Amino acid sequence: MFVLNSEYKLHDAPVYGLAISENIAFTAAADKTVKSIDLSSGIIQSFTVRSEVSPISLWAISPELLAIGYLNGEFYLINPRTRSTIFEYHFSGDGVFSLYSFNDTELYIGLGSGRLAILDFVRLDWIYLEQVSTDKIRTMVYDAHSHCCYIGAKDGDLLAFDVTDYAVNVRWHAHDGGVNSLLFTSTNLLISGGKDGHIRVWNNQVCVHAIPAHRGVIYGLIEVGAYLVSCSRDKSIKVWEMETLKPLQKITFHRQSVNQLVQQNAHSFVTASDDHRIALWEYAE
Q: Between the CA of residue 279 and those of 34, 45, 222, 238, 249, what are the distances in Å?
């Protein structure tokens, strides 16, 4: 089904963050750098961001705007093409664990304290900064039908956050140990992956399907064509039939935890791992 197209080693340390804009993949690693590679050519770019602490989250808003979050609470918006800093902020005593954007003006920033920050990246001004959870915000995903952003946290709760009123509408417990990944599918399903190794499908706050999918934390969930793809600390990538969650493929390429899973296009995705590598996977008949 999915086969390895290419593998790359940009870092000499675990890769924590991964973001893709067009054919450029940005990576953040424990060697305290952010680097990039052109996936279409396999050429590593000269672009490098160095810091004194580890970058742990990335989001590519556009080819000219990359958001970087650090373990010590530092946050930057940079232009990778001009290598200039557009905006910077320091969340004192916090860590920037998740970044997410679903429109042309707002970036959602999930912090280690459970605070949610929303930045207008056009005006470069804060819209919102409030406590919404009791622990780290690990993952976020947008539901256009209900105009809410689902937020998953280390305390195991899922929150439905109203993106118009900027308020938490409802919350419920989803996974013991934490919610680490979320996906809202093209068929309007909310799917979560947790520290408990389970994948769960939700209808409002009711779990309608659950499976023990991995032997460790599920760090990523994406939809590629008719398939659900997951990655885990157990070193594996798995492919599932979307509607039934029937297992179709297990990939054991990475030698250590698979920390990130990002879709490149309708038939390919990229993974990042503690084994220092990123890998490009493509669908094959």
A: 17, 16, 15, 14, 17
pLDDT band at 67 (very low <50, low <70, confident <90, very high): very high
Question: In this model, does residue 121 exceed pLDDT 90?
Answer: yes
Assess contact for 42 and 279: CB atoms under 8 A: no
- State whether residue 105 is helix, strand or coil: coil
- How many domains is the chain partitioned into structurally? 1
| Domain span including residue 138 | 14-217
> What's the CATH code of the domain at 153?
2.130.10.10
Please give the structure tokens belonging to residue 202.
Answer: 């939700």
| Residue 77 resides in a domain | yes
The SS3 of residue 14 is: coil
The residues pairing with 107 across neighbouring beta strands, listed in sequence order, are 119
Contact 132, 161 (CB under 8 A): yes
Asked whether residue 23 is assigned to any structural domain, the reply reads yes
User: For residue 49, what pLDDT is reported?
Assistant: 96
Measured in whole angstroms, the distance separating CA 145 from the mean position of its chain's CA atoms is 21
